[in-house]
Amino acid sequence: xxxxxxxxxxxxxxxxxxxxxxxxxxxxxxxxxxxxxxxxxxxxxxxxxxxxxxxxxxxxxxxxxxxxxxxxxxxxxxxxxxxxxxxxxxxxxxxxxxxxxxxxxxxxxxxxxxxxxxxxxxxxxxxxxxxxxxxxxxxxxxxxxxxxxxxxxxxxxxxxxxxxxxxxxxxxxxxxxxxxxxxxxxxxxxxxxxxxxxxxxxxxxxxxxxxxxxxxxxxxxxxxxxxxxxxxxxxxxxxxxxxxxxxxxxxxxxxxxxxxxxxxxxxxxxxxxxxxxxxxxxxxxxxxxxxxxxxxxxxxxxxxxxxxxxxxxxxxxxxxxxxxxxxxxxxxxxxxxxxxxxxxxxxxxxxxxxxxxxxxxxxxxxxxxxxxxxxxxxxxxxxxxxxxxxxxxxxx
Length: 396
Fold this sequence. Notes:
The structure is a single chain. This protein is of the alpha/beta class. It folds into two domains: about 5-45 and about 285-395, Alpha-Beta Complex (Aspartate Aminotransferase, domain 1); about 65-280, Type I PLP-dependent aspartate aminotransferase-like (Major domain) (Aspartate Aminotransferase, domain 2, 3-Layer(aba) Sandwich). It contains 13 helices and twelve strands. The strands form two sheets. An eight-stranded mixed β-sheet has the order 1-8-7-6-5-2-3-4, sandwiched between helices. The protein has a four-stranded antiparallel β-sheet with strand order 9-10-12-11. The chain is globular. The relative contact order is 0.16.
């Protein structure tokens, strides 16, 4: 039998790299710095066990039955209330619980993109976001990213010329670079968007993992209903539970996303939602985050010190104030892909910068995940990667 697959099913450039990353994450023989794994030391295993026991004992029938597409109301209320810490007013009716923020990105894209529509992204940007966007065949226009955030002058020019439908941004501890937008850049970029038919899709999986500096305002604070906000418990509590959300103040768009979600999966795992809510009610999230931030601050500083110790002086890396990643710029003539391929053979996989760009290839960049791994593993891994870079330099 000869099957004729859809164009949408054809793997894109990013999928090859994602498959490599996921395979490395599950191979016990490898110590990987290529993925985006939170440190397992931060997982509240005992507390989740207790929460699951209470949910099944007190609300077992509800936890095992079909539920609402929009999500468990008490959990949506908790999420809405937490936005108050960011000076934002969110109503639980504006929150959709999703299977991680990745599904939220897909719901939004499916409802907003027709083939050929213009969509803006940062350059570089999250590789799985590019994968999701590719499913709907838009024209993707990258906007350069600098140390202080998106290039606002380039943004202004592109918006004037291309009239995009929306822009996808990660302003806090960006994946892959670890960079954050300054308040000035957020304010200037918001003025570019204000009053135009452009939605801002703000992804914020790492904002609660700040271990240095002061937080800046969300684009939701600047733009109100013109901004949809993605969030997730994956990076701060548990990625395996796959609980994320989208805040959407555009009622018509929210209803369309709910209708589409109902056709995809009916609803996000209600048992997991109820266990997550019980955990949040019985434990102090800020206490948990305080410990996670201490751990990640130490891991980031340790990895940076190892890079300074083992990498050639020509290498540069970002110094993030939170999140899980840093971005290495390699010496002239050294390709991140070559470093990645060699690192896998030596048991310490890293991720080349290529899949984070829409068009650029053979780039001199690496993304490193500092949150996962022991200090000894980080030390050994950076030493090996440093040796690989030196050998590639010697080969010319």
